[in-house]
Specification:
By secondary structure, the protein is an alpha+beta fold. It has 2 domains: about 110 residues, Phosphorylase Kinase, domain 1; about 240 residues, Aminoglycoside phosphotransferase (APH), C-terminal lobe (Aminoglycoside 3'-phosphotransferase, Chain: A, domain 2, Alpha-Beta Complex), CATH 3.90.1200.10. It is about 40% helix and about 15% strand. A 5-stranded antiparallel sheet has the order 1-2-3-6-5. It is globular, with a radius of gyration of 20 Å. The N terminus is likely disordered. The protein binds adenosine-5'-diphosphate, 2-acetamido-2-deoxy-1-O-phosphono-alpha-D-glucopyranose (GN1) and magnesium ion (MG). The site of adenosine-5'-diphosphate has 18 residues, from loops.
Amino acid sequence: MESSKSRVAAPVMSPSSERPPLREICRQFPLAGEFEQGEPHGTGHINDTYAVSCRGASGRVRYILQRINPRVFRDIPALMENIQRVTEHAARRGAARPGEPRRQTLRVVPTVGGAAFLHDAAGQCWRCYDFVEGARTYDILQDPAQAREAAYAFGDFQGLLADLPAPRLHETIPHFHHTRRRYDALRAAAAADRHGRAAAARAELEFAAAREPVVDVLLDQQARGLLPERITHNDTKLNNVMLDDATGRAVCVIDLDTVMPGLALYDFGDMVRSATNSAAEDETDLGKVHMRMPVFAALVEGYLASARGFLNAAEVGHLAFSARLITFEIGVRFLTDFLEGDVYFKTKRPSHNLDRCRCQFALVRSIEEQTDAMRRLVDRHAT
Ligand code: ADP
Ligand code: GN1
Ligand code: MG
């Protein structure tokens, strides 16, 4: 969680600012050939991700090598234990189902010593995944069909994990989607104003304060037993699902660091936040930012197609609301990080987190304007 604690940690290392010894790191994994090259890959905000190519007897094989962000993930053995359990279970369940040949589960490549991750000489933790070939991720959705696919895949992923045997998964980031705590963290960061940035964010702080009543809605429903805890992905942004280059079909759900107990609605809300936005997450021309209703419709259709069988009435009844809540919550997190001096999300400019927050809040406004229509659309699909 992007708390004040993380301020004391080492600065974020971005792939562009230094080159880790990828060749040496790769020697510690049983890769199918000689290391050829490794390049920074993707646009994730948390880990340092590299695409690595190896040349072997059967040609070129690629892998994803990731340095896990230790400021965000405080217990990496627990994190990797979760990922191994989840990927192995989902792979077993997926394999037992006929008729979906292109769907894959992320596969961890253990080290030569059989460990789930490597501690390198500099004390950093690395993991390796098979590269999902013939597919890619999108930061901005191009076509509502992609939304249907992504939502189907995330719903299906929740379904595959519904019968994961005990014990309960570790909470890799405690209280990750606890919107009340996120809101209180923002208030504390604004009050402390350690970087003298609160004045620049006055309008956004007012926007957030005006919406305080929404922060407890799902937490209250959960406390009353109406919303069940499930195993959820918790980071269902569009670029965390890989779509097939040829068919556009969802191939693989990735970025499993936050797979843990949660509410199904957190996953749906973040799909809406990331997929329906007509602009980039950090767009500064807020006139370009709005919630695209056809994309929302495609998300509802895709998600209900895979998740309708297990969702209860309260979950379905809050699908539209979850979009507003999670978009707000992530805007609050960007704003908190801005006030705390950009210690959590990778940034490219001093106002980056503030820009991201403004864009999320513009999207919240657009969702609020369309809430009635969104609700009606969910009702039509659900009945
Ligand atoms: P972060 O936690 O920083 O978001 P991700 O695990 O999402 O890191 O990885 C960042 C990006 O790298 C993804 O958006 C995706 O484009 C790419 N990526 C991640 N895993 C794979 C994989 N197994 N195969 C191909 N590309 C991947
Ligand atoms: C981070 O890891 P990535 O880039 O897919 C963040 C999400 C935020 C998202 C905003 C572990 O996701 O919670 O919604 O940025 N992940 C973590 O883009 O904090
Ligand atoms: Mg990601």
